[in-house]
Each structure stands twice: as structure tokens, then as C-alpha cells.
Amino acid sequence: MKCKVCREPAVLEIRRHHAVFCAAHFFEHMTRQVERTIHDFDMLQPTDRLLLGVSGGKDSLALWDILTDLGYTVDGVYLELGIGGEAGYSSESLKLAAQYAKNRDLNLKVVDLAEAYGYTIPEAAAETRRVACSVCGLSKRYILNKEALDGGYDVLVMGHNLDDEAATLMANTLNWNVEYIGRQQPVLPATKEGLVRKVKPLLRIAERETAAYCVLKGIDYEVDECPMVGGNTGIRIKEWLNILESQRPGAKQQFLFGFLDRVSDQFATAQQEQVELEECSNCGQPTTAGECAFCRLQVRMSSRG
Ligand code: FES
Ligand code: ZN
Ligand code: ZN
Fold it and tell me: For the whole model, what pTM was predicted?
């Protein structure tokens, strides 16, 4: 296999683009894809101060690398979830995130869920008897937004990739969860006071591409899957989509971008009509009614016996 640009030996094939690349042209391809996504969805201004949710995994570290190379000012925030105990999943991920930040001289803020909010994700999952990913997602959404707001950032950047977004869309479509489909946008504007604009520049990039990017760039990342994914249907849907993609390269991209380009506006309108946001009676963050889900979770966790 030869690189389609320079004809040197290739290191990676991207079937949905009918392309094979050497390392240098693969990096260039990744950068162009991110740039194009930022441009097409009008995600960022060159002077924006960005805060990136960093997990220590391949997606957030690859994105941090690409955005920094593109000249953006990007700080990272790592949320220590308390998964896996000492030397377990969370502390290992933090080590890798901190190491990357140090190597590139970037700022990483660490928020320890237990210290700042009094609970860990395993504790919250056990107490509420909910799937860990659901209390985890709720906590991350709230805290990352708060960090961006308190830090005076213009935009909160998330590392969701093509596989993540296609799987989420598929899950919500299988249930016809219209409200969630309406919220699945590459850019979530700051529609209410208290919300920070949120963007997802990795939309065109598949999971195996961020992994290849990190490996080829020598960026160490957390390879292990979160040990608490049990019960997460998104993982199974990703597997189904991978089967589809292997038989029809480009299926995921077609599914996601067909939705974004042709129909997402209609769902967004339906969602706006349905949801009127008010202020949480406790923290003031926008919520559908009364006290927000995060405050309710916190109250429940602090009233444990
Ligand atoms: Fe959130 Fe695993 S990272 S439950
Ligand atoms: Zn090349
Ligand atoms: Zn609240």
C-alpha cells in the first residue's frame, strides 16, 4: 500500500475515504478534517478561549494535540471520577492526561469529584441503582459546564468522535427519543445564562483514527475501557455499527451526516417547542423544572447514612 499523496509506504487505510496514508499525510488529513468540521459548523473563532474535557483517552488527547497545532488556546479539565481505586482506571487516566499536558506545556485543571462534590461514580451508581454511565454523564455535563463558566471560557470542547455520535444517534432513533435527537448537534449554543457554548470538532474522525494518531505521534493514552460500562447499551450499538461499517464503509458517516445535513433542524425545532427551561431552585443552572438533576443527585449522595 502506498500513500495516496506521496506514494511512500502507507501506514493506515481509511476505507470510507478510499484513502491510504503515510504517517505525515495521515496527520495532515486528520488536521484538515478537524479544520473542516470547525469551519462547516462555524464552531470556533480564532480568539476564543477553549476548555477541553480531557479523559486521558485517545480522543481527547488527539483533539488537544490537533487544536493546539492549529493555534488555538486550549486548556484541559480532567474530572477524577474515583473509578477503580488507587492505581485503577481513573488514576491511571489522570496520570496519562497530566503527562501529555506537561510534555506540551499545556494547562490541565483536575477536579476531584469526591473532594469537590462528596461522591465518586461507583458510589453514586450503587446509591441510585442506576447504570454508572448515566450518573457519570450527568455529573460530567454539569461539572464541565460549570468549570467552563467559572473559568470565563468562551467554548467547552468535547472529544466525541464519529463512532460516539453515530451510536448515540442510533440509540435515540431506535427509541425515537425525539427530545434527545433534537439536542444532538455539533454545536450547542449557550441558549440560556449559565450555559457555555459546546462543540464537537471530532465528528468526522473515527475512533480507530484517533487511536492511530496517538500511537503514531507517540502520545500515551488510556487504552483500557472504563470498567463500569456494564449496562451501557451504547457499546453494543457501536459493535452493531462496526459490523455494518465493515460491510459498507462509510455507513456511519452517511448516517450521521445525512441526519445533520438534511433533517436535524426539524428535530431541533421540535425540541425547542417541547422544552422550556427554568432556573434550578438550588444552583441557578437551567433545568426543566424545580431542582436540577445534578443538585438532586448531590443531595441524595450527601444524605447517605
Ligand atoms: Fe463514566 Fe465510565 S467513564 S462510567
Ligand atoms: Zn504521504
Ligand atoms: Zn442545580
Answer: 0.95
